Amino acid sequence: MNYLDEFKKFIFSHYLSTGVRLTLGAIVPSLIFQHYGILSEMIAFPLGTLLIGGTDNPGPYHRRRNALLVAIFSCFFVACITGFLREFPFIIFLEIIVFGMFFSLVGVYGNRVNSIGLISLLVFVFNIDDHLSGDMVLRTAAIFCAGGVWYFALFMILQKLLPYKLIQQLLGENFIELGKLLSIKADYYFANPDYDELFNRMIHQQVLLRENHENLREILFKTREIVTESTNKSRILMLMFLDSIDLFERILNSQQNYVNLHRAFDHTKVLRLFGTYITWLAAEIQTIGLAVQSGSASTPRHDLDEAFNKCQKAFERMREHQMNHENMEDFIMLRQILNSLQDVTERVKKLHRATTYDAAVGEGYKLNVEGDNFTPKQEYHPRILLDNLSLKSSHFRHAVRVTLGLLLGYITSLFFELGHGYWILLTIVVILKPAFSITKKRNIQRIGGTLLGVVTGFLSLYLIKDNTAHFVIMIIAMVLAYSFLKINYFIASTSITLYVILSFNFLNPNHIRTVLEERVIDTVIGSVIAYLISSYVLPVWEHSQINQYIKEALNANRKYFDLVAAKFTGKQLDINDLKLSRKDAIIAMANLSDNFQKMLSEPKRQQLKMEEYHQFVATSHMLTSYIASLSTYAQMLNYSEFATEFELMTRQIDRQLQAAADVIEGKTSNSFEITRESLPQNQKLVELLAKRKKEIKELGIEKADQSPARKMLSDLKTINGLFELISTITIDEIKILQKIKAANA
What we know:
Blueprint: H1 3-11, H2 14-35, H3 44-53, H4 61-85, H5 89-105, H6 111-126, H7 137-161, H8 165-187, H9 195-222, H10 224-227, H11 232-252, H12 258-265, H13 270-294, H14 304-322, H15 328-354, H16 382-387, H17 394-416, H18 422-431, H19 436-463, H20 467-484, H21 489-507, H22 512-536, H23 546-568, H24 575-599, H25 610-636, H26 643-664, H27 671-674, H28 683-699, H29 701-704, H30 709-744
Helix pairs in contact: 2-3, 2-7, 2-20, 3-7, 4-6, 4-7, 5-6, 5-17, 6-18, 8-9, 8-11, 8-13, 9-24, 11-15, 13-14, 13-15, 14-15, 17-18, 17-22, 18-22, 19-21, 19-22, 20-21, 21-22, 23-24, 23-25, 23-26, 24-25, 25-30, 26-30, 28-30
């Protein structure tokens, strides 16, 4: 996408909506309080709006509502306890241990509860000294929670006025990221592709899409108005989401042997033509995404029918003049790519029509999947918390790190007697994350953002003397801060520092120099403590968890393959089960990829067996892609006369997948023998292929094309090739896992 499209994406995104909502929610009452001269007394009100509003993560209406209510109650409780007992240093240390452990450990219940825990810790930090409430603890706690209640009312009003807005924003973002994935695919078709670089980009993109799909599934399948009380708009939004999942699978299953593809056709222009057309399709999908976000109808950028016909004619001309019995299989591969392009083209045209919300698009709508099976499950039983009270739990280790970090930060603030010492604790709370890689990244961004924010704030105050200009800058900084908080922490940290400095200037301009100095000092101290704690206190390195992700990926792929392959052995295919197993396989693949990406940010001494793990991530990605390709044919074709041959192949591959799982679990098996076993040959297909080559050689292309077996042979050759590729990839995975286990021995 160009910069204009990126700007449009941000303007219509839910991130900007969140930033504007939080900013207005805090500024409007602040202006009213300022008008009546009571802002300094009521400063806890906008702070409550900002903090409690920070727990409002995307999700179904009832979960967002409940989370806000719990956050209000939790913050009131913490503010009162902390405020009344802060005169007793020993009690504060005890509170740090109790609150630090509990509010960090509740992350076992998911991101939404984790946000409540984080905000509760921030409220605790703000109330450790008397800078906020003085002696009026209960009054200040009530004012703070009143700010949360004000945000809750704002949320309820906006939800009633714009019930589908969040869905449109997330769905539009989904299409934009899907278009980016397809544009990466296009690069495989141009000359001299960098396969490793493209693979890493694809993995990153799939992780983003996985997170987006999870949010959308939860909202769409848990929103009663969409599932049971469908309006035309809700039907079309659901259809577009389901189409986007199918389109994602189509992009995923278009995986080819690109090395062979370039070897066979680099001397022609056809690959470059295909690559250009795929780039156009990617741009169309991103255009659809922007239209969905903005609520307007999309306008196609290109004439897709004309462009596809150009690709088809180029293929047919080349096939007519260059195909022979020796390179026939290369042209079958190219034909399958063309078929995929045709399918994607039709889907894109349908999605363009859907953005008009024409009632005709949603006619015949029927949700043919069980929604409960596709939404994330989250239990809130106390035993989950109790089960994690162990050093084996990464959540417990994180809670220990946060608690120890807060203790060190508090002792440091007492020792140096800093005016805003709570900033040290605040820095520690927001930087320390369960994964070292995220903590390291946020640490760098926090320090860099704070320094840039301080410099920007100083220049704003030094060069601009007009308070109205300062107020406008502060508003812009607040919007940027809360818009970028979850997508670019460097920008968010810079903006937060800037608006905090400007707000302090409004409240107490005589001490602004001290604020600037202390902001930098406190942030650096907090960042250093966070880095030391994350590096040396019960760290959870990604290599210690990757084997579990490998197991999950192997099991998910095996289940996915068995379900798809069963169709070719004569069994019926259940679409609901197929989509569920596809979802599980893609999630498992994305989790494994995400884990490996985090390993790259860890210290070199912790990056163990990186080459082998990288190879496994790559083969796992290809395996899921090939199974997805096979599932496309399973849904369209039924060659029951080949059931016996495919049954033998399915059994062999299933044994290979089981052997791979046995290796990673450390079980003794015949995995070494299995890697030497070849896949049973599809003798019927070999005979058909030989017959087809003979027809081409003796009759020529034109007459041979009249054979009724041509279409069947093309399909069967591709299906058989996918079985062979799946078998080869699985054997490669067994060998990679054997190397990993041998290195551990």
